[in-house]
Amino acid sequence: MKEEGVSFYRQARYHLHNLLVRGTFARITAFTIVTVTLCLVLGFVLSLVPSPDGDLLTSIWNATLCALDGGTIAGMEGNAGQKAVLFVITLFGIVFSSVLVGIITTGIEERLDDIAREGSKVLERWPHVLVLGCTSITTEILQSLAQDNERSRHVEPVVVLEETRDVMDVGKELDLRLKAFSKTRTICRQGCPYSKKDLSLCSIERARAILVTAPSDDEAIKTVLVCVTLLQELGRETPLFVACEREEAFVSLQREADEPIYLINPDRMLERAVEAMQNERPSTQAFVAGDKVEVADPTSRLLIAANDRVEREESDDLVIRSLLELHPLCERRRAEGNPLEITCVLYFEKNVEPAKRAGADEAVLVGRLLAGRISDLIEHG
After folding, report:
1. Same domain flag for 51 and 139
2. What is the predicted pLDDT for the residue at 1?
3. Given pLDDT bands bounded at 50, 70 and 90, which one contains residue 71?
4. Do 157 and 240 reside in the same domain of the chain?
5. DSSP 49
């Protein structure tokens, strides 16, 4: 079977695509060549129009001026034929010059964004807290740490290394969440948390503490292994705090590592917080958000714990829903002179006000519990 010939249109489109994917410089070169060629062709056409000074070089020069500056045609003299050709040249010049300027502007913006994402080595005056990974709980922990930093004499730097999310978006989010705290400054870098090169970029040797908030325990283990190895090579002993779901997966790693590794399990800490509240006031009754509960008459405080069986955002929704369901009971108990105090545990600070409007007397944030634990270990570790 004879192979069909490829059309000129498809060949031109193929070569144009190959040129455009080579980057900004190739695009600028291509459109510059097109603009120069256009000026030469239309300049030649302009020289064919009868006029006293219609030599080729003058016509090309006039065509180039009109192509580069749309206002040039207003100051030129000539017959109707010349002005018609110059008008066409001006129209083409406006289009191609605008596209060329747009390509240059876009290329500069892309390059600046690349430089921002690449980042440079962190050079802070004071030792920093290095955060590896940025998950939903990370911002809550950092916000609580920032509250503790307000007692500091100097600005505390926090370096965040994130791989999957765009580092510029992460930086904007953290700046928005931490703008109320003047003693905390975040520095974001794009990179892999278990890459020695990226960890060196974040000046791991200058970190006073390392917080690992990976999306999974497997990612956290890889990150901890690389951090431990790199710290041993640098001769540094820096405490590592690992937010994890299965503590047993890190037991052997804790035994073999020279650096202190502290496991921060949100669910386990919630259980301890609930036990502490119940020991503080024996008349406290606790239940998990979303579960049915029968409130006993002797109960003076009701604790609604976060639900670790669902997503964190859904857990906060279940807490607020439970508060709304308990509202009639609270009103009845208040009318009887036996008020019921309600404390709830939330993951996200944005849900604190809705929870209080729904009837909570106090809202405890998981991030605050974790940050408090981390701050204590950093101070006394």
Report:
1. no
2. 41
3. low
4. yes
5. S
Burial (CB < 10 A; 0-12, 13-18, 19+), residue 275, is exposed
Helix or strand holding residue 303 (H, E): strand 301-305
**251 and 132 share one domain:** yes
As a whole number of Å, the end-to-end CA separation of the chain is 79
Closest Cα to residue 57, out of 74, 44, 66, 76? 44
Q: Is residue 272 over pLDDT 50?
A: yes
Q: In the numeric block, which tokens belong to residue 374?
A: 């981390």
Distance in angstroms (rounded) separating the CA atoms of residues 49 and 56: 11
Question: From CA 261, how far away is CA 374, in angstroms rounded?
Answer: 11
Structure tokens at 152: 């500091």
Residue 2 lies in a domain: no
What secondary structure letter does DSSP report for 3?
Answer: P
**What confidence tens digit (pLDDT) does each residue in 107-154 have?**
888 888 777 777 778 888 888 889 998 887 788 788 878 877 787 776
The Cα 19–Cα 30 span in angstroms is 8
Cβ within 8 Å of residue 155, ≥6 positions away: 126, 182, 183, 184, 185
Tell me how far CA of residue 353 lies from CA of 86, 88, 102, 147, 242, in angstroms.
Answer: 67, 64, 47, 18, 29
Pair of tokens at residue 267: 């669910």
The DSSP symbol for 351 reads: G
Domain boundary residue among 238, 264, 290? 264
Percentage of the chain modeled with pLDDT above 70: 92
Q: What tokens does 138 get?
A: 């990370």
Contact 106, 25 (CB under 8 A): no
Q: Residues 263-290: what's their mean pLDDT?
A: 78
- Tell me what percent of the chain is helix, strand and coil, each rounded to the nearest 5: 60, 15, 30
Indicate the residue among 245, 264, 283 that finishes a domain. Answer: 264
pLDDT at 321: 92
Task: Indicate if the pLDDT at residue 303 is higher than 80.
Answer: yes
CB neighbours of 280 closer than 8 A, spacing ≥ 6? none
Model pTM? 0.65
Pairing type for strands 128-132 and 207-212 reads parallel
